[in-house]
Amino acid sequence: MTAITTTMLKVPQLRPLNILTDLLTVANLVEACFADSLDAEGHRYIQQMRRAGKDSHFLRWATTAMDTVSMPLSGYVWEENGEVVGNVSLIPFKCERKKIYLIANVAVRSDYRRQGIARTLTASAMQLARQRGAGAIWLHTRDDNPAALALYTGLGFRERARRTTWLAKPTRNISLNGSGITVTARQARDWPQQEMWLQRLYPEELAWYQPITWLSFRPGLGPSLYRFFMDFETRQWAAWSNGRLLGVLAWQPASGHADRLWAATAPEDGASALTALLCHARRALTWRPNLALDFPANQVDEAIHSAGFQPRRTLIWMQADATAALDERR
Ligand SMILES: CC(C)(COP(=O)(O)OP(=O)(O)OC[C@H]1O[C@@H](n2cnc3c(N)ncnc32)[C@H](O)[C@@H]1OP(=O)(O)O)[C@@H](O)C(=O)NCCC(=O)NCCS
């Protein structure tokens, strides 16, 4: 009797994600585990996963592209009694010939938590990234997720950046007066200063994930022709006070999600310029549905808030040593 029961029960196991068969199950698991924090973009992501899971052409292509395209096509799942109850995705990126791996979609069904499943899944993804020659291993988590923070810190990840995404709707009903800041069109002569500020606020170490297309901001004939032929629209405004440049804001339209704003401001006294520029953008872009600003967290939150922007989320970006031998902690 004991022998029969033992053979009927499937042993809990870690196994590689099978992109051909697991995608729908993983979409359901990720949706259930992130239910509290999914916004419109998150729901779109899940829908895309489901669509992909039903598309045989995509799935056939995906088996050949696992380690080349920046999509969650590989990783591991954890099974209990034949059911997938845990997942981790490993997403490849390339930056100046360096392979960078992003660990994502770490999720364990609520009735199987605190058994070390996420730790094993994440450690296995780190190991796989190292086997594939990772130059760096990254992940990000929301700042209001202490469980994930403890999990990743325990596996050797360390915080490298903390960034907030802010959202606002354009509107004509916003006052621009009273700050003593003048907003004008950005001129070519403003570019060297703007470039320095952009480099400080959008650091190189995250460029693999969020690359800045410098040609979209640079003045001059070449960049203008590039923007024209690539159908790359942009607008840029500069904020001045007493003849001094205090900040520049660039806008790029996006389809399917909020338009992107890139703020470049003086470190010491750029806060009021940022408010003025953001208000100006909201007034100038009234035909656009939504504006998004990604900015270092906790630096000038009040200035961004004063322009009517609301924080959508703050992400903590963490990095682990890609070369260290994996410490097996189960
Ligand atoms: C976060 C999550 C993946 C953890 O899964 P799990 O299998 O329960 O985690 P583990 O059992 O492997 O825990 C490993 C370590 O993480 C930390 N941890 C996990 N859950 C925790 C909790 N609820 N509170 C505090 N620390 C926690 C602990 O340090 C734990 O080690 P310990 O049990 O020895 O103390 C799971 O809670 C989950 O799916 N949450 C919803 C989705 C999510 O937030 N994913 C992370 C996105 S970045």
Describe what you observe in this structure.
The chain is α+β, with helices and mostly antiparallel strands and 330 residues long. It folds into two domains: 2-134, Gcn5-related N-acetyltransferase (GNAT) (Aminopeptidase), CATH 3.40.630.30; 165-314, 3-Layer(aba) Sandwich (Aminopeptidase). 32% of the residues lie in helices and 29% in strands. The protein has ten helices and twelve strands. The chain has helices at 2-8, 23-33, 40-54, 56-65, 117-131, 146-154, 191-201, 221-229, 271-284, 301-306, and strands spanning 13-16, 74-80, 83-95, 98-108, 136-142, 158-168, 182-185, 235-241, 244-252, 259-265, 291-296, 310-320. Strands 1-2-3-4-5-12-6-11-10-9-8-7 form a twelve-stranded mixed sheet. The chain is elongated, with a radius of gyration of 23 Å. The two termini are 31 Å apart.
Going by CATH, the homologous superfamily of the largest domain would be Gcn5-related N-acetyltransferase (GNAT)
Bound molecules: coenzyme A
Strand order of the largest sheet: 1-2-3-4-5-12-6-11-10-9-8-7
SSE string: HEHHHEEEHEHEEHHEEEHEHE
Task: Describe the secondary structure blueprint for this structure.
Layout: H1 2-8, E1 13-16, H2 23-33, H3 40-54, H4 56-65, E2 74-80, E3 83-95, E4 98-108, H5 117-131, E5 136-142, H6 146-154, E6 158-168, E7 182-185, H7 191-201, H8 221-229, E8 235-241, E9 244-252, E10 259-265, H9 271-284, E11 291-296, H10 301-306, E12 310-320
Parallel strand pairs: 4-5, 10-11
Antiparallel strand pairs: 1-2, 2-3, 3-4, 5-12, 6-11, 6-12, 7-8, 8-9, 9-10
Helix pairs in contact: 2-3
The protein binds coenzyme A.
Coenzyme A (COA) binds next to β4, α5 and α6.
